[in-house]
Design goal:
Layout (H helix, E strand, L loop, with lengths): L3 E6 L5 H12 L4 E5 L6 H13 L4 E5 L4 H8 L5 E5 L1 H10 L6 H21 L3 E7 L10 H20 L2 E6 L2 E4 H4 L4
Parallel strand pairs: 1-5, 1-6, 2-3, 2-4, 4-5
Antiparallel strand pairs: 6-7
């Protein structure tokens, strides 16, 4: 059975860099990178380039903006460590493909999406590091899509952290193992 690790933090907190270091350590110098981003504008293109520039030939990248459960299942056969970056981008891809007029269906489909992702992770022989943004510390968003995103991201983060061996919160370039210190509520 796989070991699941979860790295969460705010924007530019150091979460991806920490997760990359952890993946290489767990993978003994080699790791798979499951990239969930889709490039639609120059800002996202720039963010992807920053991430790519940090990775050398120790990495094999698999682009999976959708159906990442299948990617985890396949990649886990050949790698001992997989970095999944990131859950909130994957959630964005999901939401942009959904009919926003039916919230009940969105939550049902989201639940199924998360279950497939976690089942694939739990059944993998690889050690899997999920990266996600903490989006619940700000103000209530003014539009429906942003509120649904915030709520689903919070639920996704709770689901993954419940399955993870370790949960790291990154703040200002430091990672803290919060599962070690916290209690499940």
């Amino acid at each position: 059975m796989a070991e699941i690790f979860f790295v969460i933090g705010g924007a530019r907190s150091g979460k991806s860099k920490f997760a990359e270091q952890l993946a290489l350590k767990l993978g003994e110098g080699k790791a798979a990178y499951i990239a969930t981003a889709q490039i639609f504008d120059s800002e996202m293109e720039y963010r992807v380039k920053i991430h790519q520039a940090r990775r050398n030939n120790s990495w094999t990248t698999f682009e999976s903006p959708f159906d990442a459960d299948k990617t985890i299942s396949e990649v886990g056969k050949n790698f001992t460590a997989i970095l999944f970056d990131c859950v909130t981008i994957y959630l964005s891809n999901f939401l942009c493909a959904e009919d926003l007029s039916d919230e009940e269906k969105i939550y049902k489909n989201f639940s199924e999406l998360m279950q497939k992702l976690l089942d694939a992770a739990k059944n993998s022989a690889a050690k899997i590091i999920f990266v996600s943004n903490e989006v619940g510390c700000g103000i209530v968003p003014e539009n429906k899509l942003a509120r649904i995103f915030r709520d689903l991201a919070g639920l996704a983060n709770q689901k993954i952290s419940a399955e993870a061996e370790k949960v790291f919160l990154t703040v200002a370039g430091y990672a803290i193992d919060i599962k070690k210190f916290g209690e499940k509520i």
